[in-house]
Amino acid sequence: MSKPFRTTRLVEFHDTDMAGIMHFASFFHYMESAEHELIRSVGYSVHSRVDGQLLSFPRVAASCEFHSPARSEDILDIEISIVRIGNKSLHYQLEFSIEGRKVATGKISSVCCNVEPGQPMVSVPLPAEIKEKLTRYLA
After folding, report:
1. Sorting pLDDT into bands at 50, 70 and 90, what band is 1?
2. What secondary structure letter does DSSP report for 2?
3. Whole-angstrom Cα distance, residue 54 to residue 33?
4. pTM of the model
């Protein structure tokens, strides 16, 4: 079994509500940041030119289930795994924790798209080289 990609994130004050608890919407920003870190870890960017195409990975679905609060200045441990690599899509699961305490579980689905400026976005098959590099995070 592959190991998940791991990163950390400081809960910033501006990501909390009046009670000092991390706002639910902030989890979605952190999920996207973790996804981008994972993509960079294998040598790509969220906008990469591959085989002559400018590729990006817009999200088509995202969800998050909350288990316990995170507060301003907590350090979140984030694990992201790829649960499925499709022909054109990537499906992630994210686990948020603080010192082993489960905080939230998220899911993201992204589609590989050609995003040339001035042209409509078009979904395209994931290049084999990207699939190969991402399989190390396949759960």
Report:
1. low
2. P
3. 20
4. 0.93
